[in-house]
User: Which sequence fits this backbone?
C-alpha cells in the first residue's frame, strides 16, 4: 500500500477540525501500525499493550482521554495561545535583580532560536557529528573566560542561583579541613540566597548572610570559613573594590565566589584580576529573552587549580585520527553518570541553546560592539542619575554600572508615587521600600525610553517634563580607576570577523551544517525520547507576550502565564496520577533533587529528620545517586538480577535493615533496561512498609501515558523531563524543564520562592532562581499536551511501545536482546548487548556507534546502563520507513562484523574501527588509502545513502589526547596565524 | 589589523541608536574600504566614485541623504512597522474572487517561508547545485498536471491575470489563420478581464466579453475566433458543464483556455478531461497567505501539442554525466533572453518560492488530505446554503463548490443590511449589488466561524441565532455526476509519504541541503544583485496584519498598508528622481511592459498613437525586446561599439530615420556590460529631439543610488527590481516586484485596477491582478530603505562599485576585462571575456562555471550579454574576506587552465571539463577514477575548502538528453518501483 494515510485517520464529523496534531506528531499511520502489530503477532493494539505492561498497573481508558484532557487542533491552539497571551501585559521592566530586557539580534532569532537544526539536536556526545555546536559552546566558554579573566569556564549551568550553589559546594568540598561556614554578602540577589539556603541544608553547610566584611570579622566565622559569595555589582547597583577582602579570605584558605554581570565586565575590572576563585552569573542579557524567568544560560568559571572539580559540561579541544583540530566533551569522567554517589553536583542537561545564543551574540557584536553597548547603558544611567537628582531625588550608590538605588525621601509621596506613575506608563521599577526605588537600565532603551523614564521620576516629583534637546552626555566618571577594566576583551578572531549579517548568517549555517539533528534522521538515544518538537508548539514561545515578561512582574500583569502554567500543572497531575506539581526545577536532575528535598522535609515535618537512607538500584541513571547525596541522603545500592529486573529480595533485606532511617527509594520505571518489569507495586509497598517514600524517575514516562502512571506504580513523587516526554526540544544540551508531581501528603512541601508566592504552606526553599523555572518553554509542553489531548497522548505512548518492539523484532537474530519482560516484550526502548563482539571481533560499543554515523544515523545511547550495550529509543514520531532504514543499517553493520569474525577483514583495520569516514578521508590518494575495503563500502554501504548522506566532518576523535592537553577555549589570533 | 570594526563606524552621540542597519548590511568596514581604495590607487571614496561615474550625471550629496530619507535603527523599524500594522484591520474576508484565507502549515512557514536557505537562492540556472528546489518545482508541475489533468505544466507565472493573458497570447499565436477575436466569459474574474484588456491592445487582439455561448453564436466572432477563456467555477460560484461548448470552439480551431481553482479540482471533473487546451489559475490557497494581493504563484498547464509554446520556466528531468536522474531548467531556448523580439511572452522572474510553498502544501497533505479539505469546504458551503435558505435567502447558483451568490431580495434591508451586520462582526463579504451578496468559504473556517457566518445572515434577516447542535451535514449533492471528478489525484510517491511533521521537516531539509544559496557563499550573478536579505526586513512580512488582508478589503481596513506603500512610492521617487510610481507590476519584465504601455498611452493622448518604433541596443536583456513587442512596438536594434559602448551615430541615424514613428528608446544604465558610459544624456536628448520617450531599465540601479538617477540620465520612465536593488530575496526564482517610476508628464497614465482605485486619471488598464501587486513583500523594500536611510543607501551603492572594481583589479592579469570606462573603472559589476581559453584550451564559459561550483561558489552570470563572458556582481553586502576568497578561486582556476594550455593536462579530461565533482565521484574505485589529477585536487583545490565545502549533488547535467526526452513531472509509483 503506497498511499500513506494519516496517523489517526478516523471517521469524523464534518464539524471536527482537520488540522489535528496527532496525525502529524505520530509517525506510523494506521496501516503501518497494523503491519507492525501483525509482524509481532498481535491483531490489536490493545493485546500488544497488554503484553508489554503488567496488568496490575494498567489504567482505565478514561483516566487520560479527551474527556480529561480535551484536544485542540493546531489552529484552535493558536487561538487559545493568543487569548492567553493577551492576558499578559508586557510592561517594560527596569526591575533588574538579574533580569534584563535583552535585544535578540534578528539573525540569531531566526537562524538559531527558531531553527530546528539548532534546537533539536541532543547533547554532543557524538562529537564527529556535532562539531558545529561544540565550536559554538567553545565560543561561549572563551567569551566567559575572557570577560571574567578566569582560567576555565564550562558550557553553561541552569541559572544563576544554582550556579552559585555549585560554587558554594565547590568551596565546601575544596576546603581541606572540613570547614563549613559559607558567607554570603547581603548584596547577593535574594533568589540566589534562597537557592543557597536549600542547597546548604543538604550539604550541611552553615550559611552566614550579611555584610561580608563584618561577618569576616567574626572569629567563629573566620575559623570555620570555606568560602564567600559576593555580587559584583550588587543587587542595589553598588560596585565595590573587594581586593583587600579577597586577600583576607584567601589568608584563611577560603574560596572566593563572585556572581557577576557580563556586560558590566566589559567596563569593570574583572573578578579574575582581583583574585576570585570562582565566577558565575547569568548570560541572558546577551540576547536571550527574559521569558518570565527563563530558560537562560548561567555561566561558571574557575581558576586553574579548581578546574577538575568544576560541575557541568566542559568542551575541550582535541584532534581527530588524522591530526585535525576537533572539539569534544572533555573530562567526561566528571559527568554525574560516572561519579554517582561521589558526585557533589548532579548537573546533566544544562542550557546549551541559550549559551549558543549568548555566544553568537558576542560573535555578532564583537569586542567593539559589546563595549559600545555597555558604554551606552552606563552613559544612560549617568544621564538618568543627573536628571533625577535635579528633581530632588538622591542616589544611594555612588559607584554603579547600570543600576541606581534612588532615594525618594526628599520627594513628596516617596517611592509609592514613583511606582504609581511608572505603572500608569506601563513601566515596572524595583520595589525596595517606602523610600527607595531600584532602576536598572539595559540595551533595549532608546533615547525616547530614557526620556520617558526620566519624566516618570519628574512627574512623581511634580517637575516639568524634559525633552531630548535637554539631554547631555555626562563626563564625570562613576567608576573609580581601580575598578575600571584595562585588559582587552575577546581578542579571538571568531569575535572579530562575523559582524555583517551576511557573515553572521554564513557562520551560523556553516556550524549547523556539521551537526546531525532531528532534521536529518532518527536520533534513537535511549532514555532521551527524541521525538518531534513541533513548529506549532514552538511558535507562541517567541511572541513578546510570553517572551518579554520579567519574572518579578506584578501578578496582575501575568494572568495569561499563570493560567497556562496552572493548566500545565493540572494536566501533568492528571497524567502522573498525582495531586500537585511544581514547575520550578530546570532539569530532570534538578527535579530529582527537588523531589528528594521534599521527601526530607516531609519526614522532618513528622519528626523523622533522621531518615537519611536512599535505596537506589545499581542500574539507575548517575543523576539519581548524585541528587540523593546533594539532598543529604546516604545511598545504599540495590542489586538487579541477571535479566535486569530488580532484586526484590535485596530490596526487602536492605529496607528492613535500614527501616529506622529509610528515607526513600529511587526507581526508574519502566527500568533503565527498557522493560516494564513485574512487581513494581510490591517494591513500593516494601518501602512504604518500612517508612520510606518512593521517588519515581520519570525519564521513561513516554512509555506510560494513559496506560499506567507513577502514582499507580506506587510512587509518592516523580519528576518529568518536559524536554523528553513533553516535546521541549533538547536544544543541543538544554534547556530542560524537570517539574515534580507529588502525592497529596507531599504537596505542602513543594518549593517556594522569595519574591513570588509558589509552593505549599510548608514549602522548602527555592530550587531555582525563577518562581516558575523556565516558564517560557513550558508553553511548548502546554501546547503539546493540549493539541494531542488525552487520546492522542495515550496513542503516542502505545506507538512508542510498538516502534521499540518492532525494532526489537527486526534486530532479533542479529543482535542479542537480553532484557525483555515475561511475555518477550520491551517497553519504549530496548537494550542490545554487544559484549560478544568484543570477544569475537575485538569490537567495542563505540565502534558500532561510529559506524552508524557513516549510515547517517545518530547512534543510540552507548554503554549505559550497561557498559557493553546500546539503548535504542525510537519514540512515536518515527515513521515505519525511518525505523526500517535504521534496522537495515544495523543489520548491514552486523554483516560487516561477520566479515571480521570470519577473518575476512582484519580486526584492527576495518569499516568499524576506522569509522566514521568523513569527506577528507574519502579523497585520500590511493597510496594512503591503505584499507581493505573500497571508498563506496565506507561511505555508501546502502543504496539510499546516495540520495541522503550526512557527512561527519572529522574522523574519530582522540579523547585521551584531549584530556591530557586540556584546552577549552577557541584558538587565538596567534594560533590562527601560526 | 584583525579587530574588525563596523561598516559605518563613526563618532556618534550617546543618544544615537546602536543597532544601525548599515553596519550589518554592508560587508566591508571602514578599514577594509580604505584598504580596497588604496589598492585601486585612491585616497578617498569620493575620488574613486568620481572616476567610476561621469560627472555630468552626478547628483548633489543631499538629494538622497538622511535629510530626504531619514534612517531608522532596527528596533525603531520594528516599532514603526508595528504601528503601521496596527492601522490595518485584518477582518476575516469571505470575498473570494480568487483570494482565499490560506492556512500555512507551520512546518512550511518556519522551514521554507522564513528560512534563508529557501528564500535567498537565485533561479536554478546551475542545476548541479540546485537539485533541491528543482525537485520541489517539479513537484509543483506534477501537482498542477495531476489536478488539471493536463500534459504539461510550468513552474509558475506571476498571477492569475497575467497567466490568462499568456493563455490568450498563446491562443492568438497558435491560431494558424491570423484570427484575432478572443472571447472571454462574463464569469471570469474582473481583475483578469482588466489585465486582458491591457494585453489584448498590445497584441491587437479583439476581446469579446459576455456570455460565452451567446458570443460564440455570433458569426463575426466564430469566423475570427482564436480562443475563449472560461472560469471554472466562475466568479459567482457557478460550475458549468462546458463540454459541448469546447467542441464548438475546437470545431473552428479555437483554443480553449480555462481559469480554475486547484482545491475545487479535487472534486470537479478537471478541465483536461473535458477538452481544455490551456488551464491556469492561482495556487495561493495551497498554503500561501493572501498578503493584500500577493505574491502568489500562478500555474499554467497546456496540452501536449502546445507545450513548446508555453511561457515561463519549465523544469525537466535529465541525467548527469554518470547517468543519474537529475532535474534542470528545460528548453531554455524558450526563455525570453534567447527569443528576444520573436517572443510573445517576457516572463523571467516568476514565483518560485510561492510555487514551492504550494507544492510542499500538497506534499504535506497528500491526496487524502487535500480531498478531506475540499470536502470540508464544500460541506460547509452546503450547510451554509441550507441554513440561510431557512432564513428566507435564496442562492442563485445551483451548482457550486465553495461560493454562493446569495439573493437577499426576499429579506428586508437586502444586501446592505447583510454587509453591515458582517462588518460589525469584522467580516467582509463580496459586494455584488443591492440584492446579491457573494460568499466564498475556505479551509480556514472552523465550525465556530461557520456558525458566526450563518448567524450574520440570520441576524440580518431577524432570525434567531443557531448553535452548533443545530448543524447537520447535508447529504444532497450539488455537483451533478457529469461534473464530478472520478480520476485519481496525486498518486506519485512524493505526495503520499511525508505526512508526519517529522517526515515533512526532513524532506524540506533534505532538499535544502542540495542547494547553494546566500547562506553558504557569495552568489555573484551579474545583473541580479544578490545582496543581503536581512532578517529584520523579513520579520514583519509574516505578521497577520500584513499577511491576512484581502486585496479588495475596504480602504478603511488597510490604512497601515496604504501609508506604507505610499512611503515606499515616495522614497522610490526620491531615489529615481521621478514624480510618480506604480507598485503594481510583479517583476522587472512586467515593469518594462507597464512602462512601455504607459509611453504608448502618452503618445496616444497626444494624438500620436502611430508611434510604434522602439530602439533597443543589441546588448539589452532579452526581456526588453520581448516587452516592446507585447506593447505593440516594433523593435529596431541599435549597435554597440567593440568596447561595449552605445553607437551614438547609429542611434542618431535610426532615431532620425524613424523620427515620425519613434515611440521609445530602451536602455540599461549602467550598461549590461557593467560600465557607466559617457554620453547617456546625449543619447536621451537624441530620442527626445525625435519625439520619443526614454525607458530606463533599472536592473542596475544598485550602482546609482544617491550618485546619479534615471531622471538625471535623461529617462522618462524606469522600472526597478525590488528583488535586486531593494533586498527582496530572489526566492529561488521569484517572487519579484517591478514597480515603475515616471516623470510628471507620464503620471496620469499609471495603471488602474477595476476594483480599487490606483493610477492616474488617464490610467491604462491593469497590469496585474492585485491593485498593489505583491503588496506583502513591498514591506521588505520599505524596511530596507527606511533602515538604511539616504546616507546608508548611497554608501551601499558606493561600496557596491568599490567591491566590483576591487575584483576587477585582483583578476586583471589573470582574465581579460574588455569593458571599462575611460578612467579604467567598471560600475557595480564586471564582464570578463573567456573567449581566448576556447582557442587555447578548448574551454567554454560553462567549464569555468562548473569548476567554480567545486570551490563552493555560485558561478556568475554566464554567456550574457556576451556569449563568451561571465558577468560578476558582488554587491555591497559581501565582505572583503569573501571577495578575496572568490578572487583566489578564480585565480586558482586560471592556474588549472594554464596546465591545459601548457599541455600538462589533456583538453578533454581535466579539472574543468569534468567539473563539478560531487561526492559520488569522489568515491569511485581507483580503476574508474581515470583522471589525470588527484581526488584532493578535484575537491579541495584550496585549503579553506577543508573547513567549508559545499558539495554539488550530481555531476554535469546532460541538457541535450533532457530536451530530447522531455519529462516534466516527478517519477510515478511505477517508475520508483521499477
Ligand atoms: C533516567 C534518567 N534520569 C534522569 C536524567 C536527568 O535528566 P536531566 O538531563 O534533565 O537532568 C536522565 C537524563 O537523560 C535520565 O535518562
Ligand atoms: C537588465 C535586466 N532587465 C530586466 C530583467 C527582468 O527582470 P525580472 O526577472 O524581474 O522580470 C533582468 C533580470 O535579470 C535584467 O537583468
Ligand atoms: O544525558 C544523559 O546522561 O543521559
Assistant:
Amino acid at each position: 500500500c503506497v498511499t500513506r494515510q494519516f496517523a489517526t485517520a478516523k471517521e469524523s464529523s464534518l464539524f471536527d477540525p482537520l488540522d489535528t496534531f496527532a496525525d502529524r506528531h505520530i509517525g506510523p499511520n494506521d496501516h503501518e501500525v497494523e503491519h507492525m502489530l501483525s509482524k509481532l503477532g498481535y491483531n490489536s493494539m490493545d493485546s500488544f499493550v497488554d503484553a508489554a505492561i503488567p496488568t496490575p498497573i494498567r489504567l482505565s481508558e478514561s483516566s487520560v482521554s479527551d474527556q480529561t484532557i480535551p484536544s485542540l487542533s493546531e489552529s484552535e491552539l493558536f487561538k487559545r495561545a493568543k487569548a492567553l497571551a493577551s492576558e499578559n501585559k508586557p510592561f517594560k521592566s527596569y526591575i533588574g535583580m538579574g533580569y534584563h530586557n535583552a535585544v535578540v539580534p534578528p539573525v540569531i532569532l531566526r537562524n538559531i532560536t527558531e531553527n530546528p537544526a539548532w534546537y533539536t539536536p541532543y547533547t554532543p556526545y557524538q562529537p564527529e557529528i556535532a562539531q558545529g555546536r561544540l565550536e559554538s559552546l567553545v565560543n561561549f566558554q572563551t567569551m566567559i573566560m575572557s570577560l571574567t579573566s578566569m582560567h576555565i569556564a564550562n558550557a553553561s549551568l541552569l541559572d544563576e542561583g544554582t550556579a552559585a550553589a555549585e560554587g558554594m559546594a565547590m568551596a565546601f568540598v575544596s576546603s581541606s579541613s572540613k570547614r563549613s561556614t559559607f558567607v554570603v554578602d547581603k548584596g547577593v540577589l535574594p533568589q540566589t540566597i534562597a537557592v543557597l539556603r536549600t542547597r546548604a541544608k543538604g550539604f550541611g553547610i552553615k550559611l552566614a548572610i550579611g555584610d561580608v566584611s563584618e561577618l569576616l570579622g567574626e572569629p567563629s566565622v573566620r575559623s570555620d570559613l570555606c568560602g564567600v559569595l559576593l555580587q559584583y555589582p550588587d543587587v542595589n547597583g553598588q560596585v565595590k573594590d573587594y581586593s583587600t577582602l579577597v586577600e583576607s579570605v584567601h589568608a584563611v584558605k577560603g574560596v572566593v565566589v563572585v556572581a557577576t554581570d557580563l556586560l558590566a565586565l566589559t567596563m569593570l575590572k574583572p573578578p579574575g584580576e582581583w583574585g576570585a576563585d570562582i565566577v558565575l552569573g547569568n548570560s541572558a542579557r546577551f540576547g536571550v529573552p527574559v521569558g518570565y524567568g527563563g530558560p537562560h544560560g548561567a555561566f561558571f568559571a574557575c581558576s586553574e587549580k579548581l578546574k577538575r572539580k568544576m560541575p557541568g559540561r566542559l568542551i575541550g579541544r582535541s584532534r581527530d585520527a588524522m591530526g585535525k583540530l576537533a572539539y569534544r566533551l572533555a573530562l567526561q569522567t566528571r559527568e554525574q553518570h560516572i561519579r554517582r554517589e561521589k558526585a557533589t553536583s548532579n548537573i546533566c542537561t544544562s542550557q546549551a541553546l541559550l549559551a549558543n545564543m549568548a555566544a553568537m551574540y558576542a560573535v555578532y557584536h564583537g569586542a567593539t560592539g559589546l563595549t559600545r553597548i555597555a558604554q551606552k547603558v552606563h552613559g544612560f544611567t549617568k544621564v538618568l542619575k543627573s536628571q533625577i537628582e535635579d528633581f530632588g531625588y538622591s542616589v544611594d550608590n555612588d559607584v554603579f554600572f547600570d543600576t541606581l538605588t534612588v532615594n525618594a525621601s526628599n520627594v513628596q509621596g516617596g517611592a509609592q508615587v514613583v511606582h504609581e506613575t511608572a505603572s500608569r506608563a506601563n513601566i515596572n521599577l524595583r520595589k525596595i521600600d517606602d523610600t527607595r526605588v531600584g532602576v536598572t537600565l539595559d540595551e533595549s532603551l532608546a533615547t525616547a525610553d530614557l526620556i520617558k523614564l526620566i519624566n516618570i521620576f519628574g512627574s512623581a516629583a511634580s517637575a516639568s517634563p524634559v525633552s531630548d534637546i535637554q539631554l547631555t552626555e555626562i563626563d564625570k566618571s562613576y567608576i573609580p580607576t581601580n575598578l575600571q577594566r584595562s585588559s582587552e576583551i575577546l581578542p579571538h578572531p571568531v569575535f572579530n570577523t562575523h559582524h555583517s549579517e551576511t557573515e553572521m548568517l554564513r557562520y551560523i549555517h556553516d556550524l549547523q551544517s556539521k551537526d546531525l539533528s532531528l532534521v536529518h534522521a532518527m536520533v534513537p538515544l535511549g532514555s532521551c525520547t527524541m521525538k518531534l518538537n513541533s513548529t506549532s508548539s514552538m511558535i507562541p514561545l517567541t511572541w513578546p507576550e510570553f517572551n518579554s515578561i520579567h519574572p518579578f512582574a506584578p501578578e496582575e500583569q501575568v494572568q495569561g502565564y499563570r493560567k497556562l502554567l496552572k493548566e500545565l500543572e493540572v494536566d501533568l497531575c492528571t497524567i502522573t496520577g498525582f495531586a500537585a506539581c511544581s514547575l520550578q526545577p530546570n532539569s530532570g536532575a534538578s527535579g530529582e533533587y527537588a523531589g528528594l528535598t521534599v521527601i526530607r522535609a516531609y519526614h522532618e515535618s513528622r519528626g523523622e529528620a533522621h531518615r537519611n537512607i536512599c535505596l537506589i538500584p545499581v542500574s539507575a541513571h548517575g543523576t539519581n545517586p548524585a541528587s540523593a547525596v546533594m539532598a543529604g541522603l546516604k545511598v545504599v545500592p540495590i542489586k538487579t538480577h541477571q535479566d535486569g529486573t530488580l532484586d526484590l529480595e535485596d530490596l526487602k533485606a536492605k529496607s528492613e535493615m535500614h527501616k529506622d532511617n529509610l528515607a526513600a527509594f529511587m526507581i526508574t520505571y519502566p527500568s533503565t533496561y527498557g522493560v516494564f518489569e513485574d512487581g513494581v507495586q510490591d517494591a513500593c509497598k516494601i518501602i512504604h512498609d518500612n517508612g520510606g517514600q518512593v521517588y519515581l524517575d520519570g525519564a521513561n514516562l513516554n512509555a506510560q501515558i494513559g496506560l499506567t502512571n507513577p502514582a499507580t506504580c506506587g510512587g509518592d513523587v516523580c519528576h518529568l523531563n518536559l524536554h523528553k516526554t513533553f516535546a521541549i526540544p533538547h536544544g543541543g544540551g538544554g534547556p530542560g524543564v524537570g517539574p515534580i508531581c507529588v502525592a497529596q501528603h507531599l504537596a505542602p512541601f513543594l518549593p517556594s520562592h522569595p519574591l513570588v508566592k509558589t509552593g505549599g504552606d510548608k514549602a522548602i526553599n527555592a530550587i531555582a532562581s525563577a518562581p516558575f523555572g523556565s516558564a517560557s518553554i513550558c508553553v511548548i509542553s502546554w501546547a503539546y499536551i493540549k493539541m494531542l489531548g488525552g487520546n492522542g497522548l495515550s496513542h503516542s505512548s502505545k506507538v512508542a511501545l510498538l516502534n521499540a518492539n518492532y525494532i526489537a523484532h527486526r534486530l532479533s537474530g542479529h543482535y542479542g536482546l537480553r532484557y525483555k519482560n515475561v511475555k518477550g516484550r520491551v517497553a519504549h526502548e530496548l537494550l542490545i548487548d554487544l559484549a560478544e563482539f568484543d570477544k569475537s571481533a575485538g569490537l567495542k560499543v563505540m565502534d558500532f556507534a561510529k559506524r552508524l554515523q557513516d549510515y547517517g544515523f545518530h547512534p543510540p545511547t552507548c554503554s549505559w546502563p550497561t557498559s557493553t550495550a546500546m539503548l535504542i529509543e525510537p519514540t512515536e514520531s518515527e515513521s515505519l520507513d525511518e525505523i526500517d532504514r535504521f534496522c537495515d543499517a544495523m543489520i548491514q553493520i552486523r554483516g560487516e562484523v561477520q566479515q571480521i569474525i570470519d577473518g575476512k577483514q582484519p580486526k584492527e583495520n576495518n569499516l568499524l574501527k576506522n569509522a566514521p569516514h568523513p569527506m577528507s578521508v574519502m579523497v585520500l590518494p590511493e597510496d594512503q588509502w591503505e584499507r581493505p575495503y573500497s571508498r563506496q563500502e565506507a561511505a555508501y554501504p546502502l543504496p539510499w545513502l546516495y540520495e541522503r548522506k550526512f557527512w561527519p566532518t572529522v574522523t574519530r576523535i582522540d579523547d585521551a589526547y584531549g584530556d591530557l592537553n586540556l584546552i577549552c577555549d577557541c584558538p587565538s589570533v596567534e594560533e590562527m596565524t601560526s
Summary: Chain A has a mean pLDDT of 95. The pocket of pyridoxal-5'-phosphate (ligand 2) is lined by residues B 348-349, 527-528, 587-589, 621, 623, 668, 672, 697, 699, 721, 736, 738 (CB under 6 Å).
